[in-house]
Every structure is written in structure tokens, then in C-alpha cells.
Input
Amino acid sequence: MNTVKDLLELALEDGPDAERVVDPAGDVARGRRLLRQRRLAAGGGVAAAAAVGTLVPVILGGGGAPSGVSPRPSTPAVSTTPVAQGHRSIALVAFNGDQVPGYQVAEVPSGWVIQGGNPYALVIAPRAIQIRASTRSWESWSSCCSLGTRPLRPRVSRIR
Amino acid sequence: MPRSPRDEEFSAFVQARRVELLRSACLLTAGDTHLAEDLVQTALARLYVAWPRVRRSGKQAVAYTWRIVVHAHIDEVRRPRWKREQYVAEPPDEVGFGGSGLSGDLGGFDVALVNGAAVRAALAELAPRMRAAVVLRHWLDFSVEETADLLNCSEGTVKSQTAKGVARLRELLAAGEDEDVIERSL
Output
């Protein structure tokens, strides 16, 4: 008996179901998106090279600047109009509800509550959004609004 | 959207291999299913891009996917955010030895006292490359040569990392069992 393999099998006792039916649509969509990005990036590189090829003769052409081009480096225009930042402040309130074992949450955004957690992730969501108990399994959490973290090595800004 | 031959072939590959990839990735991440899902999604997206190149043989596609998963995992755990520590007054009691488990012996401890959480905790103690070597060799049954190729290291390194990894697992599980026996006797 390969006991190492059996041990590793045991480590997966609560993990993904080996008999699960897979829908490949999500992976195909992510693949297509990445392929599109790569092609755009490649196209952008060609366009940038073409632009450099056009500009270099203009800049190095000598005999003065071509008409319409300032001979001195222009300073970038500085807008004096305040830029709207679009930031909204989020009010944090003290959290008095039930804590998930392994975590100690002191404050949450106003109107948000802890809806579940496990050693790898803590789900905090608006009270109006009730994440069903059945979706609190590991399989569905990736599609929920969860803040992934670890009890001893927290991962931050991991919004799913 | 019409499905291209690439989509058809890739979908068939995903349907056949995704669960196996995800389960194995869970071992690489020592039970972190979210990170495992991220790794598999990343690997499959890159595989889709490279599909015309790697589709010639199913085995080549699997090896290519594993290469991405393993290296993405090693890159992920090297990021500084993983090194942050959170100080707590009392460490959470994560490891539990006492559930139903395997019967048999793994040199130095009774595996009947080991449960999945204990094994995941022990796996988490291994360095990422060492864990990858153990998983590739003992779970996925890759040869030493294939594992060395996937990990970009020598065959000697694979052998030593695998042996040290298994020995460390034994040590950690045996230590956990001793703690459990002491705890139960108090």
C-alpha cells in the first residue's frame, strides 16, 4: 500500500468532489478573454513600433522643426480644474455579532455582516444579501463576495 | 458565439481533466481550495491561448498545465503578502488527531489517528517546492525525470526534496499524534 498516496487522499476528504460534473464554459470564456488581451497587446506593440518609426525621423530630421511642431519641448498642460476623485467614504461600525472561529472582527462596513467562514476565507456581505448556507461550501465561495484570508497569514484585498 | 475547433477540443480537455487538476492543486496549496481554484483557472486560461501548440498530444497538454499550476503556486506564495504574520494571544487549535482515518503504518505513527485536517496542516509546513515534489511524485505519479522537468531542477534535487518531504510529513504527523495522546491523557 502506498501510504503517502493514501495520506494525500485523506487530505482531500473535504475537498473537491471527484465525481463532479464540469461545465467548461467559464474556462473557455476566460481563455478567450486572455487570448484577446494577448492579441491586443501584440497589436499595440506593432502600433507603438510604427509610431516610433514615424516619430523618430521627424525628431531627428534636422533643419528645424516641421511646421506645426514647436521647436521647444512643450510643457505638459496642467489642468487647474479639480479632478473629481469619485471616492466614497465607507463608514465602519463596531461588529457585535457572532465571530467565526479563528477570526476576530472588530469593525465592518455599515450594513454588512459576517455570513460565514472557514480556515481560508471569511464571508462579509451586506445584510440584504443573504448567502445561502448551501452556497457556503468551498465550491461556491469563489463566486460569492468573499474576503479570502488565512488565520495566521492573512491575504488582503482578495475580493471575489 | 460559434464554437471553434479550439473551443471544442479545449472543452473536452477541461471536462476530462479539470476535477483532477483541482484536487491535485488543493494538495499543492495544502487545502486552500480558493487558491487552488485560482491556480487552475489561470493555468487553463493560458492553456487555451497555447492550445494550438500543445494540443498535439493529451499528455503534453497535461504536462503544460501542470507546469503553469506549479510555477503559479510557487510565485504566489513568494509574494510578500504571504509573509505577513498576525499575532494572536492564543494560536487557533487547527490540528486535530482523533478522527476516523486510515489503518496502517507510515513509519513512526499510527495513521489510524490521522485525519484530513492533520495531513493538510502537515503539508502546509512543507516548503512549496518540496510539497510540489511530493505531490507530483506520490499523488500524480510523475517520474523523477518528468518532475525535474516540471520543477526546472535536477533529478537529484527531486529525489532529495521528495525524500525530505515525506520524512518531514512523518515527523509532523507523529509529533501531532504525541500531542494528541498527551492532551487526551490530561
In short: The two ends of chain A are 41 Å apart (CA to CA). The CA atoms of residues 98 and 114 of chain A lie 8 Å apart. Chain A touches chain B through 52 residues (CB under 8 Å).
